[in-house]
Amino acid sequence: RADDAEYVRQVIEEDQQHSNDNYAEDDAAYERRQQQQQDAQERAAQDAADRKASEREQKFQAELDRMNDDEAKNLALKQKKKDGRRVKSVLKAFSKQDFYGVLGIHNFSIKTPQIPINIANVAKFTIPSLSLWKGPTEQSIKKQVRKRAKQLHPDKNKDGRAEEAFVALQNAAQVLGDPKLRAQYDKERKELRSEQMETGKRLVNTTLASTLAVLRKILQVCQTLLGPFFVPVAIIAALII
């Protein structure tokens, strides 16, 4: 009976393990399907944007061909080049989730440091820090959104991807125009910058440590080969360098 009970227990454990494996496979398959669907949607959206951009470029070229005045053509081409730079700048910033960059502004503040004053141990006081620049305000953001909208509106901007840039502007304005969403966005960006700085520091430290380790090995080999002549040779080499 004891053997029978042990056998039953093993069978139950095997069934349970098999069931867990199936659940794990189902979860992995579901995640793969979700990722595939997301990738397909992104490709479809990009294809649609590419087609729209191509249509707009063809439309502009047709308008250009109908112009008889060379000066008007040159002005139109010059304006389109300017429009293209704006659109490219906006899309580049949006791809990095830099919503302030989409608006064409920077989010930073400038403060003077506190200055302690000690006059012969008689008078001691501290000059407080002063805010020279507090960053964009809610009003300045709204003003910049309106300005940017005029520059990027597809009816005025002749670049092929003006519609993409205009949608990017709307998305950025939706976040930065809401105080709560903006505060959350600023917090996440600050955390991201801190993580990037820490990653950069670790990379520099790792590279430096590896370089120093290689140099130590080279010096050890040179010292072994040169023996008592190592120090004079090292001094001469340093003087030559």
Automatic annotation (TrEMBL):
Keywords: Membrane, Transmembrane, Transmembrane helix. The chain crosses the membrane at residues 218-240. PANTHER family: AT29763P-RELATED, J DOMAIN-CONTAINING PROTEIN DDB_G0295729. SMART domains: DnaJ. PROSITE patterns: DNAJ_2. One of its GO terms (cellular component) is endoplasmic reticulum membrane. Residues 12-58 are annotated as: Disordered. It comes from the Eukaryota. CDD domains: DnaJ. One of its GO terms (biological process) is cellular response to misfolded protein. GO terms for molecular function: Hsp70 protein binding. Pfam families: DnaJ (PF00226). This is J domain-containing protein. Residues 29-58 have a biased composition (Basic and acidic residues). Residues 98-189 form the J domain.
